[in-house]
Write a structure and sequence with these properties.
6-stranded antiparallel β-sheet, alpha/beta, about 40% helix, about 400 residues, elongated
Length: about 400
């Protein structure tokens, strides 16, 4: 997004008549401009209240065996600045169990330390972890009147938490966090010096320079067939492909694409190594993720009302491969892939969308163009030529 209003971190524009999903994308766009950790917490805590209608929001970071309530935005005081035993509070439960907690009545749930809540307005809450694997913290939303949290509210909070994790990873490279365990937080985000040595070792052993990610939805099958048919058999990069399909459509898609592709197309298996010159599809009803050097397959919650979804693939690849990622959005409806493409952009990767004038269903491309500063808007033939040049090393890797 462009313009001073969008670049002003911490001032979220409310769209009472707009679609909540577009508001989430706006928040993610604002997070891409956050250069400090306090800026990240400010954007997120305000967005939590405005998008869920909550009476309060907290931002919590893990510090070893403690949780630190770093920031809050609420109608009354909560626990800002306090630290608690990770085993003794609901935020710690969410972090340790790596899943959301939705509680209608806090006084009837054994996970809640009731005495800590008696002086507050809180009657109901949602708590979600920041980062699904090895969470670094949690985000809480609270209500003064008892209510049953909706599935949509949980999904909104988890989307904000996922965006916060990426924004923290980005800000960590720019500035430390004043007032928290900077060393411990940085170590949890990067894996410490040992992880960095392992990362360099993996990099030295990898036989590819780029990771290609492709997301499509409605109109995507014929588009993908056309694209893969134009790619050379010596393409020196792995391709990860997510298209919205029915639960029994993954194997059929593999057969169809193998008929036209010079590159082998297969459904990914959990833990298999990433190899260049292969096309990876998600198994039916599973998300396709990227770890450093390995493929991950995960039956987590639906994202953007679908599983597999494009955003989890783009998000995890951006974290692990940063500027080496090429993210591509093709024909489709709705907005899946926009947040993921923004993550690719935030981490220095290359972003491409198919020219919407060429697509059967242009909405997914147009949404990505609205919220992400796209590097290239290409026709399908231009995308194929660009990717083909990767095989002959005619495209210089970004540093």
């Amino acid at each position: 997004m462009k313009g001073p209003e969008q670049k002003t971190v911490g001032h979220f524009r409310s769209h009472r008549s707009g679609h909540v999903s577009e508001q989430i994308l706006e928040v993610i766009s604002q997070l891409s401009y956050a250069s400090t950790l306090p800026e990240v917490t400010e954007v997120v805590r305000r967005a939590v209240r405005q998008l869920t209608g909550a009476d309060g929001a907290t931002f919590i970071l893990r510090e070893g065996n403690l949780v630190h309530y770093v920031d809050e935005d609420a109608i009354g005081p909560l626990w800002k600045g306090n630290r608690f035993d990770i085993q003794a509070c609901i935020s710690g439960w969410s972090i340790l169990n790596r899943k959301a907690a939705a509680i209608e009545d806090i006084y009837s749930d054994p996970r809640i330390p009731v005495e800590a809540y008696r002086s507050t307005f809180v009657k109901s809450l949602i708590m979600v972890p920041i980062r699904s694997e090895d969470p670094i913290g949690a985000i809480g939303a609270y209500w003064a009147k008892r209510r049953k949290p909706s599935r949509r509210q949980i999904e909104i909070l988890q989307s904000l938490a996922d965006a916060a994790a990426l924004a923290f990873a980005n800000a960590r490279h720019l500035q430390g966090y004043d007032g928290t365990d900077v060393q411990g937080f940085s170590k949890s985000m990067s894996g410490g010096s040992g992880s960095q040595r392992s990362d360099k070792s993996l990099l030295a052993n990898e036989s590819f320079d780029r990771l290609i990610l492709i997301g499509a939805s409605a109109g995507g099958v014929s588009t993908l067939m056309n694209l893969l048919a134009q790619l050379p058999s010596d393409l020196a990069a792995p391709i990860f492909l997510v298209i919205h399909t029915s639960q029994d459509g993954a194997s059929d898609l593999q057969v169809v694409l193998n008929r036209v592709s010079a590159l082998p197309v297969s459904c990914a298996q959990e833990g298999e190594p990433i190899r260049p010159g292969r096309v990876y599809l998600p198994p039916a009803d599973h998300h396709l993720l990227v770890d450093r050097g390995f493929v991950r397959v995960f039956k987590g919650p639906e994202e953007n009302f679908t599983r597999p979804a494009i955003d989890p693939l783009f998000r995890t690849a951006a974290i692990h491969y940063r500027h080496r990622v090429v993210g591509i959005i093709l024909s489709g409806n709705l907005y899946d892939g926009t947040a993921g493409l923004l993550c690719v952009k935030m981490h220095g990767g290359t972003t491409i969308v198919q020219n919407p004038e060429e697509t059967v269903f242009p909405y997914m491309c147009r949404t990505a163009m609205k919220y992400v500063n796209i590097d290239y808007i290409f026709t399908l033939s231009e995308i194929a030529r660009y990717l083909s040049r990767l095989a002959s090393s005619q495209i210089v890797r970004r540093s």
